[in-house]
Amino acid sequence: TKSVGVIGAGIGGLALSIRLANQGFKVTIFEKNSYPGGKLSELNMNGFRFDKGPSLFTMPELIDELTNLQGSSHKFEYQKLKVITNYFYSDGTQLKASANVEEFASEIHLKLNENKETVLKHIKRNAFYFKTTEDLFLKQSLHQLKNFINLKTVKGILFAPFLGLFSTMHKKNEKTFSNPKTVQLFNRFATYNGSNPYQAPALINMISHLEFNLGAYLPKKGMHQITTHLVKLAEEANVEIKYNTTVETLNVESNNRIASIKGNGVSYPFDIVASDIDIHALYKYLLPNSFTPKKLIKQEKSSSAYVFYWGINKEFASLGLHNILFSDDYKKEFDYLFSKQYPTEDPTIYINITSKYCKDDAPEGCENWFVMVNVPHNKSESINYAEAIRKNVVDKINMMLKTDIEKYIISESTLNPIDIENQTSSLGGSLYGNSSNNKFAAFLRHANFSSSIKNLFLVGGSVHPGGGIPLCLFSAKIASQIIVEQEMK
Ligand code: FAD
């Protein structure tokens, strides 16, 4: 039996471990925190429970696939949302994005006076974008020659120029829709991987396909159940998880193979090593004397987040699970995010309230508010906008929801880009690894294997195919296939 050492118990590391254990490898995960999940962890505070990071869940079948892989009896229950998002604009316009695309298009027609057929056509086109490119960009390595000789890949490559690789999301959406509010709504999907709709290629519009055509979901006990479920599967498959164990170095020998992992001062020999940590941390701290792929490392990072976790002792009937309070000037918001590197005074605010579905997440009559603003990934020693951002968020919520929110906050905690970096090792707290602002971004992510160290493999948000839960799960699937092919020979 070959042994595998995995660095990091994030979603990618857990999924890879489950896959490899089911292929007969002996897997040990090293996790520096006392808890699993990395960005997908939870916070319990004065009777309120919060999902600390991700809140939008798409492609649940990727988790089911892991459960079924080992025929586990551990149940992972989730429900499909009927209403996906409540949108609020500052002039008082409100609309509900139904999971039923016909209803959604009618609502856009009614509230934003947009042609219903145009909306339906846009959503269909994004499905086509997705289906034409998923095999090329998401489901296989972009770094193995053999993958470029199959038909599906060739189709993806041939179509790519026609799929909006050479126009921006904003330009495409501005051409498609007549009302700037509709453009803003569809531009928002760039933020799902921390990118800028005014720079990212129109192809990124396909992200909305996941939500509108495939559906948005919520696990029965909230997002953190994804982590607890994967841990159960891993343990059931005899994966050992060593918590509170920071990997300090990887011992690379002259034959260009890693012989051992050094964690908390102890060396552990392994046949194969896999990293689920940000590639910057991997090369800078764990492999300081090895070849570093500088071009990939210096790509622009995705945005980060500033999050307020508020225990609220009131229920807001106008809000649902996912709520967006839009800024008035979206272009300015992204200019600030990616050029000025400072959050604007009028940010778009996202409020997620799992207690709308999971009653145990807040005491009776209360709600658990996860309030998030996109902020630049951090390049400085401290966050110098903490006070300003709280004031701007409170003022905007008061204005748009006609309330005095301070009166109802009975518990508070925050998460800023420095906390995210400290807790997960992601450079500057970026949420999704590299941004997709560059049209060649897909080709400028790190491969799922190292080109110089023969037994090193990579998963997680900073490598191919990118960040976000589904993509991290795809990275684990691709890496496990490569490991099985290469190491089982
Ligand atoms: P990570 O979560 O980055 O975990 C890496 C792990 O490695 C950590 O546990 C860390 O402690 C450990 N580690 C690091 N260095 C070492 C070391 N030297 N030794 C041992 N262990 C180490 N995605 C979505 O799909 N939908 C969303 O709605 C969404 N919203 C988000 C909101 C926020 C606020 C955040 C923070 C993220 C969000 N994401 C969302 C992104 C998603 O959370 C990530 O893409 C995904 O969870 C990253 O998983 P990963 O496998 O890259 O590992």
Folded structure, characterized:
The model has no long low-confidence stretch (mean pLDDT 94). The protein is of the alpha/beta class and 489 residues long. It starts with a strand and ends with a helix. α1 packs parallel to α15. It has two domains: 161 residues, 3-Layer(bba) Sandwich (FAD/NAD(P)-binding domain); 264 residues, Alpha-Beta Complex (Polyamine Oxidase, Chain A, domain 2), CATH 3.90.660. The protein has a seven-stranded mixed β-sheet. Bound molecules: flavin-adenine dinucleotide (FAD). The site of flavin-adenine dinucleotide has 37 residues, from α1, β14, α14 and α15. Flavin-adenine dinucleotide binds next to α1, β14, α14 and α15.
